[in-house]
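Sample intake sheet
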Amino acid sequence: MQRRHYDEMRGADGEVRAHFRALADWLAETPVERVAEKRREADLLFHRVGITFAVYGDDAGAERLIPFDTVPRIIPKSEWTQLGKGLRQRVKALNRFLHDIYHDQEIIKAGVVPPEQILTNDAYQVSMLGLELPNRVYSHVAGIDLIRHEDGKYYVLEDNLRTPSGVSYMLENRKMMMRLFPELFARQRVQPVEHYPGLLLETLRAAAPPSVRSPVVAVLTPGQHNSAYFEHAFLAQQMGVELVEGGDLFVKDGYVHMRTTSGPQRVDVIYRRVDDAFLDPLAFRQDSLLGVPGLLSVYRAGNVGLANAIGTGVADDKSTYPYVPDIIRFYLSEEPILENVPTWQCKKHDDLELVLDRLGELVVKEVQGSGGYGMLIGPAAEKSEIEAFRARITANPANYIAQPTLSLSTCPTFVEEGLAPRHVDLRPYVLSGKEIKLVPGGLTRVALREGSLIVNSSQGGGTKDTWVVD
């Protein structure tokens, strides 16, 4: 049976939705050949700029271009306003949660979240206990993945609070659309996103030690072999700050310094794109060559800011996700504006039995998985895949959660045979400094294969520009 889905462009009656009319008129009057030519031009320009990502395990990390679709996804401003309220609420509560679990642990005492969910979580860092952070912010940059179901409502699919990526594609996609199709922007008012680097820099400076008046910010990258290296370099350049690797930084006299051609320079805030385990070989993995020896001691002394904070992974673990609505109620005394997708936790006996019984119709994910890896989409899987996954779940139930197979909304997409509907999701970026801010839109990811629900670039997905229009 073919699943129903919400069409972003057309209503159930087939009529074009009001916010899509200007684009629909343009598509009707524009020859397909011109759109195809512009798409080829976009590919060429992206190659020149070097907007690629590495696919681990594929030809030793071969570089690929993320496919860019020239048909934007459009959201009316009224809808975005409500989404923004829900995103701010969710991130505010998650930052409150992170502060609490490293301080008074009131949520555990209240019995809202089981202690083992937090205290035995692989991402929980005892080194963060009692540490006071500026503005009590732990996740300065959050990427919240949203999908729209067939009922027309947005749902949160997952929270990304550690080192969320993809914002460079949001910015480059907009720049590309303005270059290729300026006439489209003349037809309607599209809310801007190009001020994101300025907001990001403002957010990072707010994470500096309180005594520092003009904080020096640096972006810490694992290096050019990392899949998101383009983004690290791009954001450093856009903010006008240094891009550094672990070897460029050192600790002396209780502070972090950066090696420069004019001598050492103190660094006050590090926007780190390196995982917790590799940040400091003296505190975490001893074999790490990516981090800075002694960094944790400087951080704990309050002499450097880290964005995002160490230990944020407890809040975006997929096994924590089912508790987020209660986390919002506990800290904010509010009902969640954005709903979760129904979720079964395989560590619970009854949930495990249900999941194993319905494996062929559910989506199953590893609790620490990302990038579309370590997951099973039951309806699209071969019987052998399902049985292999059954054995993995049975061997380690606590490592998996399961959700119903939702019907992601579709948006017109330019594919080889012309315009066709393809499934999309949305990742808005939420910045938490002295205030919570976000630019209108986000990264729309699109599953380019017909019928596919996997939008991750590592799994063959592409991206679209996202327009919030008046």
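Comment: Residues 6 and 409 are 5 Å apart (CA to CA). Confidence is low (pLDDT under 50) at residues 55-61.
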